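User: Hello! I'm new to structural biology and keep hearing that structure can be predicted from sequence alone. Could you demonstrate with Deoxyhypusine synthase-like protein? Please show me the input and the output so I can see what each looks like.

Assistant: Of course. The first part below is the input, the amino acid sequence of Deoxyhypusine synthase-like protein. The second part is the output, the predicted structure written as tokens.
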Amino acid sequence: MASPVRDFIEYHFLHYNARELTACANGFRAHLDAGGKMMVTLAGAMSTARIGRSLAPMIRAGHVHAITCTGANLEEDVFNLLASDRYEALPHWRSLSAEDEVALYERGMNRVTDTAIPEDVMREVEKRMHVLWAAAAADGRRLFPYEMFREVLGQEDLAGHFVLDPAESWMLAAKEAGIPIYTPGWEDSTMGNMFTAWCMREGHEAHPVLRSGTEALAALAAWYRDASGPGTGRPSVGFFQIGGGIAGDFPICAVPMLIQDLEEADTPFWGFFAQISDAVTSYGGYSGAVPNEKITWGKLAASTPKFMIQSDATIVAPLIFAHVLGD
């Protein structure tokens, strides 16, 4: 079968960042072909950038087996589903004045670079979350952030409010596939703020409804053991990182934690590593750190295939996913 995008990349992307993109895509495919699983991490505002159009098909094809993302990416995929037709494009965002920003604020439009999201969709989701949180507190249930969203996405009436093709939602694709989503620092998100405010109103007894970040790391480590531990007969899990920050640093630390802190010395290092970032290598910065630095922290082996593409992830990630899918 013809693969126009893959063929185009293989023919034209021969040097510099383009060559790194080609090599990364082929390395991703080789890892999957060998039976390996892949963790994808999402930083920034990739959901608002509509990463679901390319990530959802990857999930449905069985090429993504776990996701770590910021709380913003978790919720903004759902906001897209419910209100993308009311988003406002801001093509001249670089020249907006402080007064322009105030006008957006007063209209309840929250800017993400060149896009403004209506605050009312956030409040619509909050109302559903309030019911869920109260029921969970009453039942003594404790949930990770992605489990909260999955319960909301499973509500029978919600699909009637979708304004976006559900095929473009990576959250729905992940729900259908049953893959885990780990969300460190969820408090740093709109829903995380709303949950905190709800807890402050309800009292400290409400906080346990949300399972903690350390519990998420333990769950991720257990998943990693099952996916690539000794005796599985598979390559260790690959790590495909979009952006930097906590979305990448949190999950990659599961391996040195298992090896060094739990003293499970037979735990394999991550079996593939790729990062797309426009961050530059700097003094102490994580996002722009070259992959080999991770060797010293017990995250990668010297032999781990490593790729660093310094470019715009909104351009690069869809191209790599299309190459892997054979589009």
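User: So the tokens describe the shape?

Assistant: Right, they're a compact way of writing down the 3D structure. Reading them back into a model, for example: The first helix runs from residue 4 to 12.
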